[in-house]
Amino acid sequence: MTTHKVGIIMNGVTGRMGTNQHLLRSIKAIIDQGGIKLSDSEVIMPDPILVGRSETKLAALAKRSGITRYSTDLDAALADAKNTVYFDATLTGQRPNGVRKAIAAGKHIYCEKPTATTSAEAVALAEEVTAAGLKNGVVQDKLWLPGLQKLQYLIDTGFFGEILSVRGEFGYWVFTGEHEKVLQRPSWNYRKEDDGGIIVDMICHWQYVIQNLFGDIKSLTCLGATHIPERRDEAGIPYKCTADDSAYATFELTNGVICHFNSSWCVRVDRDDLLTLQVDGTKGSAVAGLRDCKAQSNAATPRCVWNPDIDSPIDFAEGWTGVPTNDVFDNAFKVQWELFLRHVVKNEPFRWTLMEGAKGVQLAELSLQSWAERKWVDVPAIR
User: Fold this and answer.
1) Buried b or exposed e, range 333-359, using 16+ CB within 10 angstroms
2) Could you tell me if 292 and 299 are in contact, meaning their C-beta atoms sit under 8 angstroms apart?
3) Distance from the CA of 323 to the CA of which of 44, 67, 349, 370 falls in 20 to 30 A?
4) CA–CA separation, 99 and 116 (whole Å)
5) From CA 38, how far away is CA 42, in angstroms rounded?
6) Degrees (nearest 5) of the Cα angle 296, 298, 302?
7) How many CB atoms lie within 10 A of CB 332?
8) Does a cis peptide bond (omega within 30 degrees of 0) precede residue 349?
9) pLDDT per residue over 62-107, tens digit each?
C-alpha cells in the first residue's frame, strides 16, 4: 500500500466553523475512513497540525479530535518540511498575512472565504501564489450541498428549458444575546471595524453559486441595512452594531437571467430551509434547500386565476414533486477537501482557486459600493 501522508497546517480552526466543518467533519472524518482512496493500493492520509493563539483552546480541541499535533508557533509549523499544505480559517483581516507567510515557505494554499478584505488584495494573493507555482484553493462548500447538487442535475438534463430567474432566500433570526447565555454567531459579525457584515460574508457565497450554476454576473444593485442597532457580546456587554445584518441584492447575468437574493440575520423562517433557491424556467421550476429539492414541470403547473374574494381552490403544494436522492452525498466541506488533496498529490483538476475566491470579494465590494451610491454597478471580469 502506498500512502501519501500530507502535513496540513490548520490555522484558526478553534472557531465554530473551523472546528465542526473543517476539522471534525472533514479532515478527522477522512482520517477515520482510512484516508482518500485513490486505488486498492494507494491512499492519501492527512496529517494535520492545529495552529492558533491559545494553547488552552488548541489542547482541548486536540484532545476532543484525537489530533496529536498542535502549536501556537506558526513560523515553526511553516518551517517543518513535513507540512506541505497551509489552511487558513482565521479572521479575514488576518488572512493575507498568514497566506503570504505560507507562500514564502513554499506551502500549497487552501483557505476560507473571503480571501481578503479588498478585491485588490484578493487578486494580489492569487497572483502571488500562482507566480510561486503553488497549488491553491478557496472554500466554496455550497456547490456540494445535496439540494444544490440535485438542482445542478435538473439544469444538466435540460429540465428548466430556458432559465428566466432565480430567487434566493437566506437567513434566520439571530438573537441579540440579551436573554441568551450562548451566542448563535460571534459578536464580530456585527462590527464593521472587525470586518463583519452579512454582505461581506454571504455575497461571496452567492457569487460562486450564481457563476457555477447560472452564469456570469454582468451588473448588480444592493441595499444593505442594520436592522438591529445593539447586541450583547460574548461577555454579555452591550455593543453598537456597525455592520449590516441584512442585504437585498439583484444580479443581472450576461445571459439575461435575473437573480435576486435576500440575506438576513433578522428574519424568522417560514420556508422549507435556512437557504432556498427558486429557479423558474420556460419548461419548469424548482426549489432547492440545503438537502432537498422539489420541482414542478410545465405539465404539472396549475392555471391560476386572481380572485381574492374566495379561498384558493388550488393546493399549490400538491403540484411539486421531490427530486429523488439518486446519489450518496457526503459533507460538502469534506468533498471539497478531498478534491483539493487529490489536486495536491495527484495534480487532478481543481478550478476553485484563489482567483475564483477574488471574484467573491469583488462582488461583495461592489455590493457595498452599490449600497453607498444607491445605484446599479457593473461587474468587471476577473480572469
Assistant:
1) bbbbbbbbbbbbbeeeebebbbbbbbb
2) no
3) 349
4) 10
5) 5
6) 75
7) 22
8) no
9) 999 999 999 999 999 999 999 999 999 999 999 999 999 999 999 9
Contact of 58 with 77, CB cutoff 8 Å: no
In whole angstroms, what is the distance from residue 78 CA to residue 229 CA? 42
C-alpha cell recorded at residue 343: 489536486
Kindly give, in sequence order, each residue whose CB lies less than 8 Å from that of residue 171, ignoring residues fewer than 6 positions away: 198, 246, 262, 263, 264, 265, 266, 267, 269, 274
Please report the pLDDT score of residue 30 as a whole number: 98
Which domains does the chain possess? 2-141+332-353 (3.40.50.720), 143-328+362-377 (3.30.360.10)
pLDDT of res. 37: 97
pLDDT in tens, 288-339: 999 999 999 999 999 999 999 999 999 999 999 999 999 999 999 999 999 9
Looking at residue 115, its amino acid is T
Which ranges in 187-304 belong to alpha helices (H)?
Answer: 198-213
Tallying the residues shown for the chain, one arrives at: 383
Pairing assessment for the beta strands 275-281 and 321-322 based on DSSP bridges: unpaired
- Residue ranges of the chain whose pLDDT lies below 70: none
